[in-house]
Amino acid sequence: MAEDAWHLRPLTVGDCDELGRVHMAVWREAYADLMPADYLAGLSDERCADSWREIAARAGGGSGSGAGDEARTLVVVDAAGNLAGFGSAGPSRDEDAPTPWELYAVNLASRARGTGVADRLLDELVGPRAATLWVVEGNARARAFYRRRGFADEGGRDVHPATGTPEVRMIRHA
Questions:
Q1: Burial tier of 88 (Cβ tally within 10 Å: 0-12, 13-18, 19+)
Q2: Which CATH class is domain 3-172?
Q3: 43 class by beta-carbon count within 10 Å (0-12 exposed, 13-18 middle, 19+ buried)
Q4: What is the Cβ-side half-sphere exposure of residue 112, based on CA atoms within 13 angstroms?
Q5: Neighbour-count burial of 137, counting CB atoms closer than 10 A to its CB (0-12 exposed, 13-18 middle, 19+ buried)
Q6: CA 37 to CA 113: how far, in whole Å?
Q7: Closest listed residue to residue 11, CA positions, set 74, 60, 59
Q8: Region annotation Disordered: residue ranges (predicted)?
Q9: Strand runs labelled E in 20-109
Q10: Which 3 state secondary structure label does DSSP give 135?
């Protein structure tokens, strides 16, 4: 699918059921060899959709205008109107944040990977500003993407709370 066949738009409450299914399917696929199988099997599309509904409701039915320093989520939609992923960013959640802005997630279904839409998400959500992000240490594809986009291992380490999977903090300076 051509890059221009993908559309980015703010998350709406109406997206949440489909986004819950897409988000959990992406996790099950992307982390199949990186996180415990029982954890991935136990992920709930419905609980994920409920979490997205809370986020969309807090943003007034959408997920931020992109103005200022508010968190925002953009969904990726294909030419047929089906969701194929999302990206989220906002103020850093880290107490020791080396930058005020954080890329929270870029999660894409396999059919959207390699199309350029991840670059568009990063451009829209982060732009030229300095930012940090957390990535699963063993996720070589994601780490290579972020390195290509100017992020480097910052030295911060943590673990995914539910699984103990090692995570690495990366930083990009403006």
A1: buried
A2: alpha beta
A3: middle
A4: 28
A5: middle
A6: 23
A7: 74
A8: 155-174
A9: 72-77, 83-91, 101-108
A10: strand
- pLDDT tens string for the chain (174 positions)? 555 689 999 999 999 999 999 999 999 999 999 999 999 999 999 999 999 999 999 876 445 544 457 899 999 999 999 999 999 999 999 999 999 999 999 999 999 999 999 999 999 999 999 999 999 999 999 999 999 999 999 999 999 999 999 999 999 998
> pTM, whole model, 2 decimals?
0.92
d(CA 125, CA 89): 6
- Beta sheet of 131-136, edge-to-edge order: 7-10, 72-77, 83-91, 101-108, 131-136, 166-172, 152-159
Token duo for residue 134: 């957390």
Q: Judge whether 109 and 26 are in contact, CB under 8 Å.
A: yes
> Coil, strand or helix: which one is 130?
coil
Q: Quick one: DSSP state of residue 4?
A: G
CB neighbourhood size of 78 (10 A): 18
Query: Dihedral of CA 65/152/134/21: which sign?
Result: positive
- Each domain of the chain, given as residue ranges in start order, spans 3-172
Cβ neighbours of residue 64 closer than 8 Å, sequence gap 6 or more: 10, 70, 71, 72, 73, 90
